[in-house]
């Protein structure tokens, strides 16, 4: 019921079954039905080995009803899910329509998921007993893995499930339409939301100093154009939006990584030459607020502002303009001189000695 009543989704339900062969029969008895729902990231395991014929018939009827809301993707025909001919005639219903992802390739699931998605799976429970009172952990993993593997084949990529929505890891897959994907048109509320996002991106682009955040502005413009296209390109709008979510997440992660590195320097007050270069680089790549810039500049220059001109007022003044005033001219000058070693490392290390008191400073006498 939970799967059937879920909101309509463009992704299919991936279905796999496990059977048990009775000792005195060549027919397989349906023992387990596995259903994977991508949107909820849930795998449902339904044990059926203990059910009688009438109960199995009810399940097969329910599968037919489920077909009305979602596409059902299987590996092979999965005949065990079908009502027999007499039952269909009695109920006046058609055969269950499943979409076979094997598509006559003749390849095994293990080989297909490896060739198409680059994902290796290990199948050790092929002849497992699925009628035991309690399934082992490796049996549960095996059953779930087969259903999830169908999604890897469908999108031809491995997936990072920690993202919401899940992120395809094969770059080529982000531009490839899945084999089975039933796009639904956005409703009026969703289209309005997309228009609002476009407006917000336009506003962000206007208020950001393009000289300081040039790379961000380029990215924002690309996203805006794609979102604009989504409003008229309804067929695969959901996939396009998901890709932009992941794009923004990548930008956020990159900026956070830089920020973590800066915080580490500031917390330890380890202003070595390398640390100074990191801070200058961060200031050039991301804007400091005036308050933050003042605090960082004070930390660096507190004991070193004017010691016989050794540090040079030119260096400190440009550093102040970079940290406090976000000056691009000063940044480019420091970048060309510091990163190309036109300022001697001893000058930068002198800052670290004076602030941390590390071994004293031979140039200004500070301990």
From TrEMBL:
- Cite the GO molecular-function annotations of the record: 3'-5' exonuclease activity; nucleic acid binding
Q: Where is the 3'-5' exonuclease domain?
A: 7-153
Annotated GO biological processes are: nucleobase-containing compound metabolic process
Tell me the domain of life.
Eukaryota
| TM helices/strands, residue ranges | none
Under the heading InterPro entries, the entry gives: 3'-5'_exonuclease_dom, RNaseH-like_sf, RNaseH_sf
Mind telling me what this protein is named? Answer: 3'-5' exonuclease domain-containing protein
């Amino acid at each position: 019921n939970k799967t059937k009543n879920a909101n309509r989704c463009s992704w299919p339900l991936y279905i796999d079954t496990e059977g048990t062969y009775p000792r005195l029969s060549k027919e397989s008895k349906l023992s387990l039905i596995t259903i994977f729902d991508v949107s909820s990231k849930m795998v449902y395991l339904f044990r059926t080995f203990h059910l009688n014929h009438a109960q199995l018939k009810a399940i097969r009827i329910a599968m037919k009803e489920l077909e009305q809301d979602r596409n059902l993707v299987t590996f092979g025909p999965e005949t065990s899910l079908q009502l027999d001919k007499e039952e269909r005639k009695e109920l006046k219903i058609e055969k269950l329509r499943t979409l076979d992802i094997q598509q006559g390739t003749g390849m095994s699931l293990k080989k297909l998921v490896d060739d198409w998605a680059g994902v290796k799976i290990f199948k050790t429970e092929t002849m497992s007993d699925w009628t035991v009172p309690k399934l082992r952990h490796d049996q549960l993993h095996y059953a779930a893995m087969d259903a999830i593997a169908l999604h890897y084949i469908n999108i031809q990529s491995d997936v990072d499930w920690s993202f919401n929505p899940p992120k395809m890891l094969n770059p080529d897959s982000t531009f490839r339409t899945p084999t089975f994907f039933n796009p639904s048109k956005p409703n009026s509320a969703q289209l309005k939301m997309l228009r609002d996002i476009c407006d917000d991106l336009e506003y962000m682009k206007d208020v950001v100093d393009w000289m300081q955040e040039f790379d961000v502005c380029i990215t924002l413009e690309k996203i805006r154009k794609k979102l604009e296209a989504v409003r008229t390109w309804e067929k695969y709008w959901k996939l396009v939006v998901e890709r932009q979510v992941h794009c923004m997440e990548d930008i956020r992660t990159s900026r956070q990584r830089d920020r973590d590195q800066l915080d580490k320097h500031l917390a330890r007050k380890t202003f070595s030459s390398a640390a100074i270069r990191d801070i200058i680089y961060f200031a050039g790549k991301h804007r400091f607020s005036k308050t933050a810039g003042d605090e960082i500049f004070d930390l660096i220059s507190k004991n070193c502002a004017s010691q016989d001109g050794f540090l040079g007022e030119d260096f400190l003044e440009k550093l102040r303009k970079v940290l406090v005033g976000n000056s691009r001219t000063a940044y480019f000058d420091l970048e060309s001189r510091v990163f190309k070693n036109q300022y001697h490392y001893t000058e930068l290390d002198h800052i670290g000695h004076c602030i941390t008191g590390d071994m004293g400073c031979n140039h200004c006498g500070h301990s």
